[in-house]
Amino acid sequence: MNILIALFPLIIMIAMGYLLKHYQYLATDFWVGAEKFNYFILFPTLLFTNLTYVELDLDAVRWVLAALFIIIIIVSLLLWSFKLWRYIPAARFGVYMQSHIRFNTYIGLSLMAPLFGPKGVQLFAMIMVVSIPLVNIISVLSFSQGQGVSFKNTLLSVFKNPLILGCVVGMLFNLSGLKLFVGIENALKLLAAMSLPLGLICVGAGLQFSALGRSLSRLAINTVGRLLLIPLFAYAICSLMRLNQLETAVLVVFFALPTATASYILTKFCQGDSELMAGVISLQTLCFALSFPMLMWLLF
To answer: 185: exposed, middle or buried (C-beta count within 10 Å: 0-12, 13-18, 19+)?
Structure first.
């Protein structure tokens, strides 16, 4: 029941975004500005405030981060083996890779607090610090045989990523022992509180169900792999490494999330199959409402 209660507001926000965009209640320019404002200002502020005053214990999470790295690398290598076996072109393979290793940060952070409390939020933020640069680099490499990909420039953009900067600055401020002026702290909290609702509404606005009518088998493969097979694999790795229940649950939730909506942007930039990517994002987001409660009931 707790899982359904935690998931329900997310579904409402995403559905609201889809309906507002579908019925053109707001101008198209609004969505572009809202996504940019959230990505560059609100969400980094949320990450900063989450990491500023929590008790950071990097030694305590080293095995969680090791498990994270192992799972992402193994999944990536399996996908590359599949590419060589089936001779998948880079334009489509980049979609497959992003569909399986990238994650929707808005949905993930929205679930952490109601399901796992402050410790879950802290752990998820640490996972994000490591995973964001890693999955972006792998995603760029997956398009390496396509046109329009500059690995050097994209790698630089990864380390200028506002989400990474928000996490790093938050941790450095935490370790410094400094305190924010109360007025500034309250202002940052207000900005941070705006991020997740706006982000979820933008996720809904970005859904493109018209793309679901194409390549149903490919859409199904990428959806089942991401939402069911990889979370089960993550659970097996966590069990082998004997992680505790909270660590296991947070990692499984991380790998059960639908892929990032930003995957569509990178796919277009790399001249990949953007229509297939749009379909995968939409189907995974839609199916997540069913797959996530089922996984949590099965595993926990």
So the answer is: middle
